[in-house]
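Input set for joint prediction.
Command: fold jointly, output tokens.
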Amino acid sequence: MDTSEARDYFVDLQQRIVARLEAIDGRAFRRDAWERPAGGEGVSCVIEQGNVFERGGVNFSHVNGDSLPPSATATRPQLAGRGFEVMGVSLVLHPRNPYAPTVHMNVRLFVALPLAAGEVAAPHAQPNWWFGGGMDLTPYYGFEDDAIHFHRTCRTALEAFGTEYHPRFKRSCDAYFFLRHRNEPRGIGGIFYDDLNEGGFEHCFALTRSVADHFLPAYEPILERRKDHAYGERERDFQAYRRGRYVEFNLVYDRGTLFGLQSNGRAEAILMSLPPLVKWRYDWRPEPGSPEARLYTDFLVAKDWLA
Amino acid sequence: MDTSEARDYFVDLQQRIVARLEAIDGRAFRRDAWERPAGGEGVSCVIEQGNVFERGGVNFSHVNGDSLPPSATATRPQLAGRGFEVMGVSLVLHPRNPYAPTVHMNVRLFVALPLAAGEVAAPHAQPNWWFGGGMDLTPYYGFEDDAIHFHRTCRTALEAFGTEYHPRFKRSCDAYFFLRHRNEPRGIGGIFYDDLNEGGFEHCFALTRSVADHFLPAYEPILERRKDHAYGERERDFQAYRRGRYVEFNLVYDRGTLFGLQSNGRAEAILMSLPPLVKWRYDWRPEPGSPEARLYTDFLVAKDWLA
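tokens >
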């Protein structure tokens, strides 16, 4: 297992995606290289008040630590407290146009070191490693075409690795991006996986690269179709209200966010996922039959978009 | 231990506070009585787009359940999984005027039932109970007079019960309302206590009543002084930015919020604490020496306001 190859891939991925997003927006991202005192480094690429993106970030990070925090070992309690190394790229984009959906993509490699202090090594102890990743779409005004295109591209990204992956990762996505306290999905889903360690490192790494490389093909055509759609105050208001759900999910449930905050990550980079302008209001419901209501009835529902 | 007396007190407290806030605002709160399918009930009193309050809520709830969630037993792991009853009043007020601080007050009584399924009763097994509560102030533009008045009233609320309470509860407040990922307090503090079970039920109940009864004397003079202060877009913008910290605290750290969400509480009532309009922006810092910078340098610091 050579983690430097993964690192090179993630560094290049960030550059490629940012370059393309800059071409779309017409404005440059700000680039901040940072070091983490407790170990590790990263580069945050951020855009705010762009022509297309009201706020967005594409972060690379590669950090290590003495003790895996609970958010990273929920499904592997035997690894709690081990030293670790984690690297990856995470992005969230909040377009200004309410007809253009928010998108999230993340790919990462986790390595838990084999020995905790005082533990006796098995004869051929290997580090534990796993990949995680995925992408998901959060529209404010839903479009069937967009949902089909996004899910189709997710399926394409995975099909060379086995036909079972897409349904499995789509289900994981629906289960993960769900606000239990609202009984509501965050968006229309996509794919999500974590703890992927099967078929060998090369298989998992290749799958992860394919997911990441399909991000732009999945999102760019949707953005191009929607970014110049006419809108007014009503749509901006609904967008700001719905963005509240994004904040609720990321701060209450999201493992990556909690892992970052618990492991003394760089808060400003982690919280790049939060939208620029958000409204909360009490017990608000859309007018039945309105375009806003259709988001709830036609899009924020469990659905097989490729059926 | 008679919990009906506590219940009567909390119900009346909510009514008294809402009546006074309505007199201040000039607009009525909306009142929503609700029942929780899994057991319990409450009344949410909410104001939005009032003359003084941009958003605020005063909630009474009295709920019971089969199994205490983890957020309620962090410091009492032996009670995890027990049946419970919890009642109290919780309020958060977000004035529109950026010179008027946001305030939070909460008082509650927790009762953990003595027996989990299959557990053998001790001969004189009693339910475990504890009170919790406090109030704290979150200014956007700080005023020394306000901070002194608020802390002085908190001290007055506690002094009849023992001189050690105020310093102890002030320290707890500073420790609790702290954003670790920002290394920054939420506001200027006040008092906070949890797990209070000492000197008998009557002592703890009387102390809790005194805290709650000092809420209006602590906050109202400050609000009266600041609610008509002239302000512009700059101050509104800073207020919206700082309100992001309030969201981050409540969704990432606040035990009451997490308890409510984990126990299938009424999300709209619990999330009344979230501000109406919030902005996030990347790596923003106030101009050194500006009024905004003075919030950080002069108010968001550990400080004995009564020295």
